[in-house]
Amino acid sequence: MTTSLSGGSRGSSSVSLHRLAARAPISPSIAKTALAAAFLPMVMSHGNHDEGSIPEGQAVSVDPIDTTLWVHIFVQTFAFGIIFPLGMVLGMIKNRWHVPLQVFGTALALLGYALGHLHGGRVFNEKNVHAKAATPLFFLMVAQVVLGVYLKLHLERGIHARIRPFIRILHSVNGKAFPLYSWVQMLFGGITALGFCQGDHLGQCAAHFIMGSAFIAYGVLLTILLLVGQLWLRRTGRSQEFFDSAVIAAWGCVNTFTEHRWGTEWVRNDWQHTTMGIIWWAAGLVGIWLSIGRDGSPQRNFIPGFIILLTGWAMSSHPQEMMISAMTHKMFGYTLMGVGFTRIIEICFVLNDQPGVSDDGRQIKAFQYVPVFLLYAAGFLFMGANEEQMGLVLWSGMDAVAYILILYSVASMVFLWTMVLINVYDRAMSPPTKPIANGHARGEEAQLQDANEFELDGLMSDDEDEGRKLLKKVEGADDDSIGSPSTVGRNSQRMA
To answer: Which residues pair with 190 in a beta bridge?
Structure first.
């Protein structure tokens, strides 16, 4: 979701798009039309929004969100949340649909960009965080298109042979980071649309969205490691708890010195947040130590799960002013406690301290999905538990149970989409093996041999049938001795 840019940035944007049009095989008339279509809404929109309608001390007006702005939200969410991540995965597996999909996503993003300047209804402060983040996101998208066009031209002679590898790396890194940019910008869009995180609300709002996003990111990483990363973990020579404990210890150090504004009076929440940071870095160091065996081999341990469980217990008893906020925080704490508890069970009892279920890293127990999914749910519960959001839910008349179920539903959809993207990558990089029967692959060739043998049975005499069985027995013994595939089909064809 992008919003209006400043006048100065419009000039630089125009130059960048003109250069792109000059490099790509696009006629000047089409390029000018595209530029006019993109920038005309911005020119028209300047007279339609009066910031004087915004109440004093607020970031948005009391007007409702109109249909055009809703379309802008859905189009940009579809482009940046669905199309671009899928296009990124297709680019990683070098699928031929990568370029068409990214072109389609870019066209949708430009359409949503235009709609963001044509809406009526609610008025926003021009200096909102969503508008400020739109400028770098727009140029990153343009840069990604330019880099992609350059790579598609396959210029590999002269100086291009030297710079092409760097262009490929830059295109790859920017493309993989684009879902992260998009996530931040979509959060900024929601904050701006509702007028949240202003004034005294900024600190707690930032804490909820940062920590909630961190839990979701942790869930995404665990999903990747669970589905396609087990062999990578073994190659690193470290257990998963080593990396988890290192991140926990680092985050604890940050929380220890940032949760309390030093020089001011200590309050109850400051004590809880600061001591939580201390236990994170203290126990995180223990987890790092336990993750390395006496001989240097990787070892599993319970520390990350225990820290998450303890954090959930602390959050479940966090004091709140509103009842609905207390219930939401309590459910968040219980969910986080569930993550830690099930994580300990998985390591100690499901996997029996082993890196995984199987040596090939492809077998997964159903229970292993439980802590991963609960991390997604915990992240959305914490993001949705900021005080302004709680006030909005209370004003709407919705009860805590319905609100929590909605957040769990959103977590389920994000969890599903993450697994879909990983599955697209995994099926392309590691195609599923053919079913095995008696040590031999039962693919199309084996099925064809079985069909030939069945059809020839009715055409053979008894003597031929006995001879065929004798040849099968003799050649089958030879095949077993050297471990070669069965030649039943070829025997049948010779006897026929």
So the answer is: none
What pLDDT score was predicted for residue 15? 39
H or E stretch at 441: strand 440-441
d(CA 33, CA 119): 22
Sequence-distant (6+) residues with CB within 8 A of 317 are: 330, 333
- The count of other CB atoms within 10 Å of the CB of residue 452 is 16
Look at residue 230 and tell me whether its pLDDT is greater than 60: yes
Query: Which tokens belong to 269?
Result: 């929440």
| DSSP output for 291-339 | TB-TTS-B---SHHHHHHHHHHHHHHT---SSHHHHHHHHHHHHHHHHH
The one-character DSSP state at 26 is -
The answer to whether 307 and 280 have CB atoms below 8 angstroms apart is: yes
Residue 121's SS3 state is strand
Map tokens 């359409």 to a residue: 111
Q: pTM score, two decimals?
A: 0.77
Query: Residue type at 397?
Result: G
Other Cβ atoms within 10 Å of 484 Cβ, number:
11
3 state DSSP class of 402: helix
How would DSSP label each residue in 345-386?
A: HIIIIISTT-S-SSTTS----GGGHHHHHHHHHHHHHHHTTS
Q: Round to whole Å and give the CA distance between 391 and 389.
A: 5
CA distances from 452 to 428, 435, 447, 470, 490 (A): 32, 20, 9, 18, 9
Token code pair at residue 170: 């830059």
3 versus 460: the higher-pLDDT residue is 460
Q: Give percent above pLDDT 90 in the chain.
A: 51
Task: Give the count of beta carbons closer than 10 Å to the beta carbon of residue 190.
Answer: 15
User: 99: buried, middle or exposed (CB in 10 Å: 19+, 13-18, 0-12)?
Assistant: middle
Alpha-carbon distance of 32 to 38, in angstroms, equals 10
313-371 pLDDT per residue, tens: 998 887 788 899 999 999 999 999 999 999 999 999 999 999 888 888 889 999 999 99
Q: Each residue of 24-55: pLDDT tens digit?
A: 444 444 443 444 444 444 433 433 455 667 77
Given a cut of 60, whether residue 208 has pLDDT beyond it is: yes
